[in-house]
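[job 4417] fold queue: 2 targets
>>> target A
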Amino acid sequence: MTPAAFEVFAILLKTRSGLVIGPDKLYLLETRLAPLLREQKIADLEALALKLKGIGHAALADAVVEAMTTNETFFFRDDKPFAHFRSQVLPQLAAQRPPGAGLRFWSAAASTGQEAYSLAMIAAESKALLGDRRVEIIGTDIAREPLARARAGLYTQFEIQRGVPMPLLVKYFKKEQDGWRIADSLRATANFREWNLLADLRPLGQFDIIFCRNVLIYFDQPTKSRVLEAIAERLAPDGVLYLGGAETILGLTDRLVSVPGGVNVYMRAKAATSTSASGAPALGAIASAMKAINRSVAAPTDSVPVSSLRSGAVGGS
């Protein structure tokens, strides 16, 4: 493939999804786009690039982006965030909110829905704690096919075995001919929407909990900053953000700070000035220290002002 053809794919993916690829990722283009080439009866990647440069191929461009984005996910993936959410954050939110006040959770880059439904199961198991509070879970992704599967709530035996404990399987899934269907009561709490992480997030509203894990790793530094700034806007003043194990906010934003005792768990910087209910020291010092650390990390040489960026987002939590 010529450098000019490769550039067509690189620009398309960066603009539409935020995904950054270099020439060393040519094998990914060849592997992931091969089924699309067969389906569309296109000879090769060179011919596909030529089509993408033409007018009236928006659907084809969307198909390329969807084929290239990562949709790897499974139930209760990397259990520590879910354990922290279950044992610490959920009880704290229940104590802070007025009786009957609802809770909103967001699974960003939700893929086929396992993360969102993992949160739904934890909420259902915490009924005694939450009482009659309404729990709303929003799952978003740019890939349409995985979202359709998430809405259907039907999973294969392999997908179930990758993380669903037997007691929860018995309680919240029903065996069908094609797999295991999650309970209607949990599907009713989850709303899956096609949404680009780098589009305007304001229509989604505000959230008490945001899981945005294993997404930032696919972005360059300026795009990471833009995503984190936008997410901070959507987080409730006392809300909590969970990132993936290989992700950090350092050098990217000063609007978020680490939650004491959590790993890759963050809150809004302003919220960290309050004193914890357990009598722990005020978190203002922590917020100030985190801001100082953020400022001390040298900005990447390829960084540009966030306001000048125009790009998209990628899935896979």
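>>> target B
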Amino acid sequence: MGKINFVLVALFGLISMHLTAQEQLGIRMDNYTGMDQAWLNPALVATSPLTFDVHLVGMGLFGENNYGFVHHTSLLDMKSKTDFVAGWDLEGRSAPSQTLVGDVYDTPNKKFAKFNTTITGPSVMIKIAEQHSIGIFSNIRAAFAATKIPASLGYYEYDRKKYLDGFTVTPFKGAGAIWNETGIHYGFELEKSNGSFAFGANLKYNSFLESGFFGLQNEMTYTKISPDSVAIDYPAIEFAITTGNIKEVSVDMNNKDMTIGQPGPKVYGHSVSADLGATIEITDNDVDGYRWRAGVSVLDFGMAKLTQNAEFHTSFPIPNSLTVNFDSLKSAKTVDELEAKISELALGDPKASLKARDFKMGLPTAISIQGDYQVVQSVFVGGLVVQPIGLSRYNLTRTAVLAVAPRFETRYFSFSTPLVLRDWKSVRMGLAGRLGFLSFGTDNLGSFIRKRDFTGTDFYFGLRINAVNLPKFLSGGGHRRNKRSPLGCYSF
């Protein structure tokens, strides 16, 4: 099957989108990073030793996949390479020196490919009367992923399938989006005799620039009939997409030519969401500040609502069998024409698949549990669990995370080495630091320095201006408590 045909299969629905979250542990768990802590647990801002925090700019990028790779390289090694070649084009020959070799895996595993980036804009936090924290913030977030794709749809695996030999494609679904969030923060800390209790909230207004989801609801049988035709039995498919920019694209598949109109940022819908969290700290006499801290938070609680230039399509009622001739689809010049042709093939009517001009999906809601223990002065061991939860049939689903992050932390310097388990199967070692007002790090250090099959990377940084609570800092090391009496009961 040719590359163009394989792309058409993807457009027909055999690729999903799914969000993965990058937790940026080196920034989120540091007590001197101000508003950056709010994205992990907004209550952490209320207990911060900082009087104010002005976040100037920050960025985080995460990418990982098990579909393809660049052979025996790292990010640092890539700087010395000047050319790129596909592995299947070498035909047994060795690649020239200074050449990167890309290829795809031939394995029986389900496939995934994930990308996530966050740009943190200006944000401000101030403390009022030492107990209250208030702030404003703005972030741009983008994510795409394809996950749980059956191994039979891998490049080499699919190519080996014999004609008229049907195979099963199992159900999968996912979602992707680009959106901007602006919001306000509030936190309150209640100090007691030997510790404190705090809660916090971020209320966010979301503007969605691009969004979509896909779902295959049942097992279907897929059969290659010829290089240009396939048969699909019982395809129960749903998908939704924003169309403002896609409809600016026209394609001439016969001449392999593409024309793009005037795409640009377009807002397709709005919604509100919230982060909610609480923490408890316990101190003792051996260290400044808390001996241990525990917290729990609910992140990105809300729904995405797309109401402008948005379409929801479905193959229901399910056709018994569907034959797709890719030559007939190649004549489509626009997305509208392609959707109409597929709808006519599946349902006998070019307009039957379009069911609504709006759609909803869940935001990347998750429950997060944090723990932090100060072993000796300025030496901490932090722990984190993030478990995604779904609020609707289709969700921007966060990645499950289990992490342990030892760190050394002072007012103007910190250093940590997080160990991260993602999705309960992929372990990575990270490295993060803070020098004054600049924070930086990665949760995948090996991608920078270790030569191996390169499948993805992770990095982040943040630049801010802030100050400690000077009266407490001069008298006892910042927002530190050294009270000797036991922790009393809280009154509300």
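[job 4417] complete. Note on B: The two ends are 67 Å apart (CA to CA).
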